[in-house]
Known about the structure:
Layout: H1 5-15, E1 26-27, H2 34-45, E2 49-51, E3 54-57, H3 59-75
Antiparallel strand pairs: 1-3, 2-3
Helix pairs in contact: 1-2
Amino acid sequence: MTIKQELVDEIEVLLRYNLDSTQEGIKVHHTAREGLIAATQRLHTKGLVDSEDGGYLTDLGHEAAEHTQAALRILTS
């Protein structure tokens, strides 16, 4: 199974969130890499973030980010 770059970009966006605070979001600026901008828009369409340019994680997004960050910790340990 291969992972498409689009999915890698979405994972990268989810890894940028600080899960220690629900009051801390992110903003993906228009000067960011195009893949990250598009990934953030897809995450918004999927209901994982509350804004097309990042913003805050939704409940589903928080769960996805937790799993994504946990998997990265396991794989890099």
